[in-house]
Amino acid sequence: MNQYYEIKAVHHDAILLFRVGDFYETFGEDAIKASGILGITLTRRANGAASYVELAGFPYHAIDSYLPKLVRAGERVAICEQLEDPKLTKKLVKRGVIELVTPGIVMGDNILANKENNYIASVFFGRQTTGVAFLDISTGEFYVAEGSDGYVDKLISNLRPKEVIYQRGYEERFTEAFGSKLYTYKLDEWVFAEEINREKLCKQFGTKSLKGFGVDHFTSGISAAGAILYYLDFTEHKETAHIRSLARLDEADYVWVDKFTIRNLELFSSNGSREKCSFADVIDRTLTPMGGRLLKRWIAMPIKDPARINERLDVVEYFAKEAELTEAVREQISLIGDLERIASRIAAQRVTPRELVQLKNSLSALEMLRAALDSTDSAPLHTLSEKIDPLTAVRDRLAREIYPDPQNNQIQKGGVIADGVDPELDDLRRIALHGKDYLQRIQQRESEATGIPSLKISYNNVFGYYIEVRNTHKDKVPESWIRKQTLANAERYITEELKEYEEKILGAEEKMLQLEQRIYAEIIAYICTSLQPMLRDAATVARIDCLQSFARLACERRYVRPVLDEGSRIDIRQGRHPVIETLMPVGEEYIPNDVMLDDKEQQIMMITGPNMSGKSALLRQTALIILMAQMGSFVPAASAHIGVVDKIFTRVGASDNISQGESTFMVEMLESASILNNISDRSIVLLDEIGRGTSTYDGISIAWAMVEYLHNHPTARAKTLFATHYHELNEMEQMCPRVRNYHVSVKEMGNQIVFLRKLERGGTEHSFGIHVARMAGMPQSVVARADEILRNLELVYGSNEIVPSRSLKDRGRKASARAVKEAAESVPQSMQLSMFQLDDPVLVQIRDQIKGLDINTLTPIEALNKLNEIKKITGL
Prior knowledge:
CATH superfamily of the largest domain: P-loop containing nucleotide triphosphate hydrolases
Number of helices: 29
CATH architecture of the largest domain: 3-Layer(aba) Sandwich
Structural class: alpha/beta
């Protein structure tokens, strides 16, 4: 226990899995925590002077089942192993932590998601800029950037790291900039020292400077990136030969997609109850884990350069037209394993025999893939083909030295190295393999010599090989045999010959394992020299996989190639929502719509229409079509001409952040503020039901002011789709020359409405809210009562709106409330409330006048006078 406490003191913030014999044990607080997460039994054991200590453990071979559960629960796990063979020491076995597994630093395939990166991020708050770095140790991808806290927040939202490290003492600023939902770990300030970290990075990449990576001037970024390398060393992840480059993330290269937009467009996870129906899930036709991960990066970070976008579109178009070639490419890609993660496991000396077989098969498929690309007349595909190195020498060595189907997936158990690789290994295998034949010959010979027909040779762990003789024949046993054990019906003996052969067989097995492990280590060291070309192959395959995925999707869903340029016009004809269209029931078709925006005539489209008519879907589909186009994908439309955008902003849907004390309206205002403070001339802004979280007049006022701001901005004419229930905003078309009114049409059939979901020119003043309530299953009495009140309002005000459409300045805040009261009071109902229960000063005065009357003594003249007084109070 002293040994345990010494190690635990170093890793006090992690659950310590302490190897004791065939078990991993946890003690004290760790045991209480682990038993809860893992569902294992919590016990107590005596602990000397410390009385009792809690204990929970599991067999060492079950770690692959239990470790993922601890890490997914957000725990840091220190794995403490026995560093000596207990047979070779008479003292306490030496133990030490061989690995610290955290949510951001994971190597095991049983924890990692195939098509998802597992980034750890490092944030450094510098004097002028904030630096950030992202590393996926399982693939070797390493990125760095610097800028404002807002830009770093966007990158964190896009790349979604599993863990973030930052300087101790900056907790308040970190929470203010990035929220409190990230898994974080704080390091001392000195870990982020720029000069030391610059040296660390140069040493890691084998260079004298960082100029070749284009990050030499990123002082804050270098501080952040170097801290990640320190953290790897701290967590005992020292084998990092696969981390050989550092890529910069320039704000100027990518479309700004903030965290609100990622959530509102459901890019990576659905806000509804259905699983696997996010945008990424629906469009993914990739065949490799590398392709799936790259697709998510392209979704999170669309590009802005039309030339680069069109390079991708050229390949997609070629694949879409050449079905036979595409099928051949898909066939070879499907045979390629996860080269990125295999490379990282080779570097960390953790690669399994079956992963090496998968590597060999992948390299063979790479050669066939290159041949398929070379057979085309496409220049972009030839360029991709030239980047593929099938590593023929590595493939041939693996084919020659590793069994095609290894007996075991752990080199420690042997049966991995092929015959013919090492003569000594082959000789030892012959001894082990033919040992049973030799024992059979000894058994037959001794049986004939002694006349004991039932004699047999067996083996156990206590005294090795032995001869067993039944009691009926024990008088025939030769004197040279040595008796070792007496059973009820038999006796067991050993001979000098058996002991000699036993040593030879057991020695052979031990030597075989040693030889196999030595040869295996040599193979891994040899492959380590080819990690860089292997990672380049992985990147090329991922790119081809993404582009063929786009082509496959385009063919399946009838997508078209968009036209992209530096112009300011967005013109989408017959656009469709890629996710909703895919999930629609069989037989139903998505109703397409046109959207046209520019900065001269139609900058803002004001869209009105009833609930459920499709306004939100129209907004989302416009954003997704633009995003797909700038990823390099074909789009769900009849045609699309898109002047590239630099920022996509959305405020769609309502959500409370109750845990942080933020209401629906507060969340809405935060998101809206973020949009208005960051718009540019090339932004696309999608606003849905702004202001609905507060009172009618506050909401209308805020919405009106936002539209004016977007329209009148001196430098940024952001193209905007504005969906609203406030029909009063239709008046803005007369006041703002670049605002145009549209509505989503419906058809009335008696008491029913049919949603036509077609966008048409002009505004509308009908919300059909009561119809929607009826469709939702609202109790019939409630629907009928609402109908009566609405009809009365229309009689009183000549409109189906609570307040007639006058200028905002003429309206009183209490007008709508008074209108509803009057409408409700004029409609009889079975349980009518007393008018004197209404909180109205006029009614209170009338009540006081009537209260003092004695009807029995009141004359007709007095009654008329009293009525006249009441009339004066009402102002009629």
